[in-house]
């Protein structure tokens, strides 16, 4: 039986996953890599770290699974978005470190772009609802202004997964889903918008050719085979951005199917046959792997990373061999809904486009002398769910969600958290066997379709097996419905006060 390798190139590390040709998960390997913060608003990673870790993860995956390189029919990548990797005409990397999706250095350049271009028209065309300085086009503008010597040598600018594809095959290209995060992609035309490049003062030829997400873009070169352990000549599919791969792997094959990704950051995404855009609330949109469909999402920047902050700062004494998160789950189970009057705002990494201000800072409210650590732990879970519920309400004004809410990512493992989400969303919350592998399954599906093992994506829903369905508790939901207006007003006050503190 042939096998597939899917790579999930995330912000925190690389996961290499082995799948059967039927889409069953067989084995996976995860290796972390570093993120660098050279100065305020700069967030960078090293593309060669990605490559070195892809090589190491592939070798380990083949070894531990007992698989032969000749078993692998095709590989494909899911990659984190909005990255700007500069290569010269010889394919050489021009910067050891590159800005990733949450790098915000290009604020001034974003202002310059919209002095030449109407912002609303740009947003409604591209669906790029996150702060404009996140997008590749403004990062290129920053390079042109601040590193002109580097900029003058750029032949192509690639995304994260596109760089790995280049290292595997020697082919420089991207797919529609990743291109739709460059800041210059017309969602309706399914192609670049030259006017936006002209307004930015960026040469159009810097952007790579766009190929279908499941297109075979090349095969593993002799050098890449030596470094990864893959067989020379193994087909490589183009792959897709992480949001789109996750949507595909999360059964997002038709209108209204939604999922919540509960990782370091978190988002709610729904599949749609048209871009869901709104000038005021600014959902962000990526082209789907299937032409004619879109992944439309709203987000918060801090979810799992805020919960991890709670773990590291309030629960560090629990690291005695017991899984700290399991202990925190037990704490939350012993606290009633509403956390005995304590409320948590999780914006420890600032606010997204769907929140009152990008400068919003997190905090606790409702502390008293009787407040316990258990209250704080549950409040942090509720606060993350409340913040996502606020974004869900925004999405629900634009579209309809059908069926239950699938929850993916690391947080989906917590039964108490799934129940909290069901109660706050007032929706059934589904956990399946796919769990943290939605993006990997999506990438594996692109590989399978690309090399001809599959004909379409209809088998994906059948790969999912229900492991738990959390139904909303009417009494708990009624309580949360009374607390949500309080949360929203408090978030507004926090945004205002955070701005005052910034000016102080």
UniProtKB/TrEMBL annotation:
Coiled-coil regions in this chain?
none
A GO biological-process term: carbohydrate metabolic process
A Pfam match: FGGY_N
Highest taxon of the source? Bacteria
GO molecular function annotations of the record: kinase activity; phosphotransferase activity, alcohol group as acceptor
- Matches recorded under InterPro entries: ATPase_NBD, Carb_kinase_FGGY, Carb_kinase_FGGY_CS, FGGY_C, FGGY_Carb_Kinase, FGGY_N
Q: Which UniProt keywords apply?
A: Kinase, Transferase
CDD domains from the xrefs?
A: ASKHA_NBD_FGGY_CvXK-like
Check the record and name the PROSITE patterns matching this protein.
Answer: FGGY_KINASES_2
Carbohydrate kinase FGGY N-terminal domain mapped to chain residues: 5-249
Where is each Carbohydrate kinase FGGY C-terminal domain found?
A: 258-448
Entry keyword annotation includes Cell wall biogenesis/degradation? no
According to its UniProt record, which protein family does this protein belong to? Belongs to the FGGY kinase family.
PANTHER family (UniProt xref): SUGAR KINASE, XYLULOSE KINASE
Q: What is this protein called?
A: FGGY-family carbohydrate kinase
Source species: Enterocloster aldenensis
